[in-house]
Amino acid sequence: MLEPKLQSIVEQLCSEGCQQVNVYIQEIEAQRIPDLMIELSAQQQQMILAELKSIMAVYDQCEI
Predict the structure, then answer these.
(1) What is the pLDDT of residues 23-44, one digit of tens each?
(2) pTM across the whole model
(3) Which residues contact 33 (CB under 8 A, 6 or more apart)?
(4) Residues 6+ away with beta carbon under 8 Å from 13
């Protein structure tokens, strides 16, 4: 479970929809950090990336 600040950022990113979350994942992996995450440490950014990937893995398995 993420700390509340990071969880809030994940929720904000996810509120933009699945396609946009996939874009965010690609951008973070390419070190193009979304504005919402720019002030976070590298470790926190990686925690959010892992959480986004985990969330999207559920959607991929369900084929939504």
Answers:
(1) 999 999 999 999 999 999 999 9
(2) 0.89
(3) 27, 45
(4) 20, 21, 24, 34, 36, 48, 52
